[in-house]
Specification:
The chain is of the alpha/beta class. The protein has 13 helices and 15 strands. Helix 5 (about 95-105) packs parallel to helix 6, helix 6 (about 120-130) runs antiparallel to helix 12 and helix 10 packs across helix 12. The radius of gyration is 20 Å and the shape is globular. The structure holds nicotinamide-adenine-dinucleotide (NAD).
Amino acid sequence: MSKLRFGICGLGCMGQSHFARLHGHPRAEVVAVCDRDAARRAGDWHDTLGNLDLVQTQGGRAPLAGIRTYETPEALLADRNVDVVLITLPTPLHAPVAIAALKTGRHVLTEKPMAGQANDCTRMIQAARAAGRTLMVAQCIRFWPQYARIKQYVDEGRIGAVRFMTLHRLASPPTYSAGNWLRDAGQSGGALLDLHVHDVDFVQHVLGVPSAIYAHGLTGGNGGVDHIVATYCYQDGSYAVIEGGWTFTPPWPFEMGITVHGERGTLTWNSTRGQDVLFYHGGTEPERIACAGDALRLELDYFIECVLNGRPVERCTPASSRASVALAWLERRSVETGRTLHLSERLRAAWGV
Ligand SMILES: NC(=O)c1ccc[n+]([C@@H]2O[C@H](COP(=O)([O-])OP(=O)(O)OC[C@H]3O[C@@H](n4cnc5c(N)ncnc54)[C@H](O)[C@@H]3O)[C@@H](O)[C@H]2O)c1
């Protein structure tokens, strides 16, 4: 197979963002798209929020010529010329569409969070296993150049044993989603599952599944945890503190950041302070580690190479994405009960990847 043929389900913010990165890709092409919104299906993407030079340079018109368009995921799945289904639909649709796609023999790349509930994630993993097809969740922070470089430095032992990590992801309430589904906690899981899960996933990527979790949070009027501060504790004494939320008053600017402190140095990056990761390891100035690259493109490239070469997706396994959903739910339980939750060794082993 020379080019992997993608069908994109959902042409909102993320569908459009992935489309732009697949357009002209040397190893993949978009052959089909679906959305229930007729204007988006017709290529009218003038209201796009993504950073889409591709579309903006064409007066808000998406280059959909030659691409088959469908109204529903079911209709797209009936198109036999699709090899990969890319799911950029609201979260409640991730599991049903992924499972249906896997059952028809397609590979699946789905946006995060993997699903709203861990048991749906389990069903997705079982469907991929039964079909013998590739399933990956687009946990883009694992591919974000600064975060990936920090993980690489930690793995190479450059800061010695990790003592603690702090991460944050802070935003004002999202207003752009179709029908405002993001603000409906029953659909999105609130900021806890939609926003904060990025950092839950990255902590797990670096330190593994914690032995205890304690969290404080602010529950919004719609029942979702919209701001949270969680502490993850590990058996070697290390810990992570993660803050996430979209309660900040507009025009609060989006901000994300990470600091990892080890016995021999500190690595830090903040999205408001440029592209370089700063590495403090003595002397008078930090070492500046230059980082470049587009996380979504790097994520797509990785997935495409895994599928085309028949390799497992080790950098972002479905089991780890499932664990991130389960950990977010444990945080919610800690918020609701005010208690520290301890994870047994057996559970950690079962969730570990
Ligand atoms: N990786 C990231 O950083 C990131 C950022 C934003 C969103 N996301 C995730 O991406 C997913 C999509 O979010 P979004 O921001 O693109 O949402 P969105 O609201 O912008 O887009 C969703 C699209 O799906 C369409 N749709 C909804 N129900 C449908 C149905 N039944 N059939 C056909 N089309 C339907 C809508 O018309 C809309 O165009 C979510 O799971 C979200 O959590 C990830």
